[in-house]
């Protein structure tokens, strides 16, 4: 028996096929969004960033559901990321 793995074309990215690859980006916080402090780090220059775990994933990512724990208060850069857009597709290609 042969199992064939079928990958969706990049143009068919949706919430149900998303693998949260963008949650590996470094996210610099440039305004107060209300993100809880436990998800924020101070970088070596004193800037605020979303905390990343040792494996590179954003600390606000729920690893069971692959959804954002602070979605309603997510940083602007996360809000502005277009699903299926250039950055999304680039992240998927890098991590999948």
Describe this structure in words.
This protein has 96 residues and is α+β, with helices and mostly antiparallel strands. It has one domain. 16% of the residues lie in helices and 10% in strands. It is built from two helices and four strands. The strands form two sheets. Strands 1-2 form a two-stranded antiparallel ribbon. A two-stranded antiparallel ribbon has the order 3-4. A hairpin with a 5-residue loop joins β1 (40-42) and β2 (48-50). The longest helix has 10 residues, at 86-95. The radius of gyration is 15 Å and the shape is globular. It starts with 39 loop residues before the first strand and ends with a helix. Residues 4-8 have low confidence and may be disordered.
Summarize it.
The protein is built from two helices and four strands, in the order E-E-E-E-H-H. By secondary structure, the protein is of the alpha+beta class.
Keywords summarizing the entry:
96 residues; alpha+beta; two-stranded antiparallel sheet; 2 helices
Blueprint of the fold:
Blueprint: E1 40-42, E2 48-50, E3 61-62, E4 67-68, H1 76-80, H2 86-95
Antiparallel strand pairs: 1-2, 3-4
Strand order of the largest sheet: 1-2
Q: Whole-number average pLDDT?
A: 83
Query: What is the total number of structural domains?
Result: 1
Query: How many DSSP H or I helices?
Result: 2
The termini sit apart by 25 Å
Strand content: 5-15%
Task: Note poorly predicted spans.
Answer: 4-8
Helices and strands: which structural class? alpha+beta
